[in-house]
Automatic annotation (TrEMBL):
GO terms for molecular function: electron transfer activity; FMN binding; metal ion binding; oxidoreductase activity. CDD domains: flavodiiron_proteins_MBL-fold. This is Flavoprotein A. It holds the Pfam family ODP. It comes from Syntrophus aciditrophicus (strain SB). Residues 252-392 form the Flavodoxin-like domain. It comes from the Bacteria. In the N-terminal section; belongs to the zinc metallo-hydrolase group 3 family.
Length: 401
């Protein structure tokens, strides 16, 4: 059901407590999500965004309880991705003559998905749409996170509708940031940034600075997923600026997979050495075959360095490790350091291949890696502890630009 967030703006989205997979199987979530759509009533009425296709009929029914659909004058599509536009066909079948305001790239994406010739109106940064008592100002935000992405700003209520930027996959009974568990909110926001926005960090910084330079007062930030930022709304903007500047904490994360536990024992001994050399560092270990990879990417995002390990199988690495390396290549983390390790039986290709792929993914690879034959004996374990310690020393001495 709709929920009034100001005298003129209602949230008319859908809270989805159930979904655990997003973008196919790519993004896993623990806490569901919401698809946020907003109804803005001036003298004229605009609907900003819609919801995901499976909830289309429910969305339209609820919207009809909020307003006679004929009273909607404009539709704004900030982003064409189906989690926000999937309900448009159901809505447009009722009000097919209503204009849809969006970027030129969004028209391409909506036409490409729904093959409909709706009344599209192309908007650019600075264009305004009068709702009589207040205005919507459009701000293109290409690659945050698709070429079509756009924000819009409501002048009277001083609300920034930021679409996917500043969002989180978090289902909650509350709509506002000050009413939910702060640790959960932070965890979901950083996970979202790490997994969706990291590749576009330079654009994030540029866009935020551009918006801040406009000096628009912002009383609320309404993203298209999760919680609305009403208490100190600029906190998430400032946090994004920090995350966009190659964020790292004093964390070293060890990612590995193993068939017969040799590589696991190496991982644990490397961790022991790292902890001994830098007790203040957070050290976390993930068997990537058994871990949630979206969570793992958030841990990599927080790390200043990672170690990646695999046993050698059929002259290569285990497929779970290859998948994580491919994921990290796409996310293009900056200014992070790395090394490879792993157990092997005779040819031992995995470590060299992991080092290569870490380098290709933009990590500064600090050494040739550590390979040990079969399941390490006491001497092998001691070597892992020693290498863990020396890795910390290398971290201190190596400056990565
Ligand atoms: C199916 C299979 C294929 C393997 N292929 C290779 C190989 O091509 N080269 C190699 O050096 N070792 C190979 N090994 C040996 C493992 O790398 C070795 O047993 C190693 O100690 C396993 O490490 P782990 O205990 O971390 O799984 C293979 C083992 C298995 C089970």
């Amino acid at each position: 059901m709709g929920f009034r967030i100001t005298d003129t703006v209602s949230w008319v989205g859908k809270v989805d407590w159930e979904t655990r997979k997003f973008h196919g199987e790519e993004y896993t979530m623990q806490r569901g999500t919401s698809y946020n759509a907003y109804l803005v009533r001036g003298g004229k009425t605009a609907l900003i965004d819609a919801v995901w296709g499976p909830f289309a009929e429910e969305f339209v029914e609820n919207l009809q309880k909020e307003i006679d659909l004929d009273e909607i004058d404009f539709i704004v599509a900030n982003h064409g991705e189906t989690d926000h536009s999937g309900a448009l066909p159901a809505l447009m079948s009722r009000i097919s003559d209503r204009p849809i305001y969006c970027t030129a790239n969004c028209i391409k994406s909506l036409k490409g998905q729904y093959h409909q010739d709706w009344d599209f109106r192309t908007v650019k940064t600075g264009d305004k749409l009068s709702l009589e008592s207040q205005e919507l100002i459009f701000i293109e935000a290409p690659m945050l996170h698709w070429p079509d992405s756009m924000f819009c700003y409501l002048t009277g209520d001083k609300i920034l509708f930021s679409n996917d930027a500043f969002g989180q996959h978090l289902a909650a009974e509350h709509r506002f940031n000050d009413l939910v568990d702060q640790a959960e909110l932070y965890q979901e926001a950083i996970k979202y940034y790490a997994n969706i926005l990291t590749p576009f960090s330079m654009l994030v910084e540029k866009k935020i600075k551009e918006i801040l330079a406009l000096n628009l007062p912002v009383e609320m930030i309404c993203p298209s997923h999760g919680i609305i930022w009403r208490q100190d709304p600029l906190q998430i903007v400032n946090t994004y600026l920090k995350w966009a500047a190659a964020w790292q904490e004093n964390q070293i994360t060890i990612l590995y997979d193993t068939m017969w536990n040799g590589t696991r024992r190496m991982a644990e001994s490397l961790a022991e050495g790292i902890h001994a050399a830098d007790p203040s560092a957070t050290v976390k270990l993930y068997n990537v075959a058994r871990s949630d990879k979206t969570e793992v990417m958030a841990e990599v995002f927080k790390s200043r360095a990672i170690l990646v390990g695999s046993s050698t199988i059929n002259r290569g690495m285990l497929s779970s490790v290859a998948a994580v390396l491919e994921e990290m290549r796409g996310l293009a983390f900056k200014k992070k350091k790395a090394m490879a390790f792993g157990a092997y039986g005779w040819s031992g290709e995995a470590v060299r291949q992991i080092s290569q792929r870490l380098g290709d993914a933009g990590f500064a690879v600090l050494n040739d890696g550590l390979r040990l034959l079969w399941n390490p004996d006491d001497g092998g374990i001691e070597e892992c502890v020693r290498v863990g310690k020396s890795f910390v020393e290398q971290l201190k001495s190596d400056v990565v630009s």
